[in-house]
Amino acid sequence: MSDTEAMKVIIVGGVAGGASAAARARRCHEAAEIILFEKDEYVSFANCGLPYYIGEEIAERNKLLVATPELFKNRFNIDVRTRHLVQSINQEQKTVSVLNQKTGALSEESWDRLILSMGAAPLVPPLPGIDAGNVFTLRNLNDADTIKEYIKQHNCQRAVVVGAGFIGLEMVEQLHCLQIETELVELQPQVLPPLDPEMARLVQNELTAHDVKVHLGTAVEAVNVEDSKAVGVELGNGTSITADIVILGIGVAPAIELAKAAGIEIGNCGGIAVNEFMQTSHSHIYAVGDAVEYTHGVLEQPQRIPLAGPANRAGRISGQHAVTDSAHAMIAPMGTAIVRVFGLTAAVTGLSKKTAERSQRKNRSVIVIPKHHAGYFPGAESLFFKLTYDPETGQILGAQAVGKEGVDKRIDVIATALKFKGTIRDLAGLDLAYAPPFGSAKDPIHMAAFVAGNDLDQLTSIIEVDADLSGYQILDVRSQKEVDTFRFPEITHIPVDELRGRLHELDASQPLITVCHTGLRAYVAARILKQSGFENVQNLTGGMLMQRHARPEMFE
Amino acid sequence: MSDTEAMKVIIVGGVAGGASAAARARRCHEAAEIILFEKDEYVSFANCGLPYYIGEEIAERNKLLVATPELFKNRFNIDVRTRHLVQSINQEQKTVSVLNQKTGALSEESWDRLILSMGAAPLVPPLPGIDAGNVFTLRNLNDADTIKEYIKQHNCQRAVVVGAGFIGLEMVEQLHCLQIETELVELQPQVLPPLDPEMARLVQNELTAHDVKVHLGTAVEAVNVEDSKAVGVELGNGTSITADIVILGIGVAPAIELAKAAGIEIGNCGGIAVNEFMQTSHSHIYAVGDAVEYTHGVLEQPQRIPLAGPANRAGRISGQHAVTDSAHAMIAPMGTAIVRVFGLTAAVTGLSKKTAERSQRKNRSVIVIPKHHAGYFPGAESLFFKLTYDPETGQILGAQAVGKEGVDKRIDVIATALKFKGTIRDLAGLDLAYAPPFGSAKDPIHMAAFVAGNDLDQLTSIIEVDADLSGYQILDVRSQKEVDTFRFPEITHIPVDELRGRLHELDASQPLITVCHTGLRAYVAARILKQSGFENVQNLTGGMLMQRHARPEMFE
Questions:
Q1: pTM for the model
Q2: Which CATH class name applies to B135-188+196-211+218-250?
Q3: Is B374 at the interface with chain A, CB within 8 A?
Q4: What Å distances lie between residue B498 and A22, A24, B340, B476, B502, CA to CA?
Q5: Which InterPro entries does the protein's record reference (chains A, B) (predicted)?
Q6: What is the ipTM for the molecules in this complex?
């Protein structure tokens, strides 16, 4: 369709994906008629900023309004209609029927191209008391306004957050900023379910260090209600929690009803099926954002990835393709995600060990815990970095990082390498920016790749952080002082620097695991042993420092 | 050669490359005899930390000693001999002759494999007065001790730093921390010669904002000496500077004499020629670090890259290859470098526009100036980001970034993409970690890639920051208030939001340039114009904000 042809584009939903689609469509087609329907009051607001607005870290509400209907009109000649609910799609007639929620009027609008960006709705489990007025979900600016107002008016002192995913954790942090005593409930046995348990444990410790009580492996079974207000929740494990506000952050359900009713194909993961240009099963109907399934870059199969980054990029592609019939294909997202929890940052890209197992991918994971920049430079902080890769090809599958500083950088480097289907060999040779305030000549990325490479080359074998250690002779090569602080119950102790002279104390016929604080000295020890007739030697990746988080019950 | 064969490895030079080689060689070959000769007093010290030790940002001297000879002995069974100067190599006999500088004794040592890691020596120009006792270079810990002691003993008040490269800038910053009034002299017409001029100008402004006087495009012609002490310098432009200490940071010369005398091949760039395993023209002699030429990852030709990262990685590879005859090949470095200058960080990877021109690579550069994280989140800082790419294939050639926050992350992402010979299309789809404290749903990387992609697709043409603007109709689409602040002398002014209604005020037959604050609104304007019959429209990349730095004389 050329620029001069008449063209009418309807966009349904005006937040990340829809707003991007609208602006891009205009820039690619000046003459098109573009109408954007939004069921709520606001378009193009910063939904990722909502928790921070509630917690007053973002002080001004109008900062959240990235673009107003006036700006869409003046700059992009786009007709934004808020509080308009699209109720049905007629594929053959190429129309939608729209309810103006301000007036109650129903109308039909025709389209040449239709872009659906309706997002997802927060899940609300059907529990007794769940309808109480002070049980909230957080999805749009109205929700944020309501929660903020409620907290103020009722001078809330105690909160329960249900769900320890990204939004749940952001809400816990921000409620804590408001000096509200907050407890967190999560059905899984760990916080941050996208991470592996030992990495998530670091985040859990940060929560408890800030007096957030964390209830894991248990569900809310009922909301206790008095005078139509929630006053607490009952957990499956018998615990009662008192609270004067309840926030639900247990996930979202893709808004697919409209598409489904119109006969548009829904994928196996429950999202709208789209191709690389965001076309649905009807080639003139596009869908983007939290309601769709993207091809996951590592899994190479459809996956729901309800995150802002892919939504924005997909919106842009759909907007261009809708008005020009061409665009550069969507690059598969990797499920990269990040969250700040008080002083810590936790992030993931690609597959965790858990997700690799679940999708039956052969996998191996190493953990390194170097400083985020040169150790000799002030302010160096430990970075817990887990790299998961294919044990046969060395292909990177994913990474997780938790630390006070430098987490986002390392995850972005891995996300970039994932795009190119890079291997651990590639990572070992990356020419990353180094000066003492920013990194190390051997960056945490390099260190992880070196460890993985040594494992792949069988220079040393690593044993994973959660492996069964029974039946092994455990050789702790730390100093006496370190061993005295915390240790496994049954170990042999020889400091690494004495090992060459004390090999006779060990039984070379027995399978042996070397361990130190983070894994570096244990690697040196493993190499000495392996070259001295010890054939079955493995180095415990992440060392004792990681074991404290992987097997906390042993050291508590 | 198998692990059990006798093997003797001599390593010459014990800092970044040599120390890495030694440790790796041991881990790969427990039985080898490994001797490390170092001409100075210390091995494995943190040379990148020296400026910060002088400036007392690193308070403890012993933090700089990463590994001592004792640690090398105890942990790695490596015989470290400091103050031993290797004077010659006998290739046929496979020996070196060594001077023990403590005793004056000369000896011969045989080797099966020899690894040269002798670094480079600071350049000292043959100027009158240059031999004065208080004209210093900074290369090793003794240099740092001497400078530190001199400053203290003589209560230095005024310093001149000669050379505005990475070390020069670090020294300026650190001397300023000591409350020493510091002036900077650079032969090039800009600071930080690896960067393009307008990007370097941002750094220059940061220096002058901290009362550092910067003398560009002029050389030191003489050091003024009184009582055998430097009391200042004379510049080629006639300026005299008073100072009680002079620091030279004008570059380094690779230490190739030993290799050259032994008949080892020297490359065209003046460094020792090596292959991907760091083997010199004599396959049993390896060389690494500042004395060699690496294959540059973008130029794909040999280049001297005297930086710590490549030295460490090359050392590790050479150490393994020397004792096992195999290793994973060195991945070509990209010349990635970074420096903190007061509150700013400046970094580069791959080619700048300048280096692309110099090496006759077709190139095009876009500049974006977004916030380093979500604009609505507190603490968002402007990030000046320049992306250089091949205008035909879209292949990334390099990037430069200057800003208060987030510089290292973006440069590392580009350095990673360069490894994979990525294109701007790849960058546009990277799944980077996003939450408001860490980035934007459309990251600066994406924004730059979008701009470059639009240019490549001829959606809009960008005009480069340093292009000749004469003969163009310039359309400034900013608000009246912005235009009043600073503007080009001859412009047409139509705010972008009024453009559709005022097209008749413009001459569509004339080549036209759109400009706004950073380039975003000018892009929207260019699209409107291009679709309204204006065939020759270009968008000034980086906008007026970058013009202030590219053509400061116009606005001063």
A1: 0.97
A2: alpha beta
A3: yes
A4: 19, 19, 42, 12, 6
A5: FAD-bd_OxRdtase, FAD/NAD-bd_sf, FAD/NAD-binding_dom, FAD/NAD-linked_Rdtase_dimer_sf, Pyr_nucl-diS_OxRdtase_dimer, Rhodanese-like_dom, Rhodanese-like_dom_sf
A6: 0.97
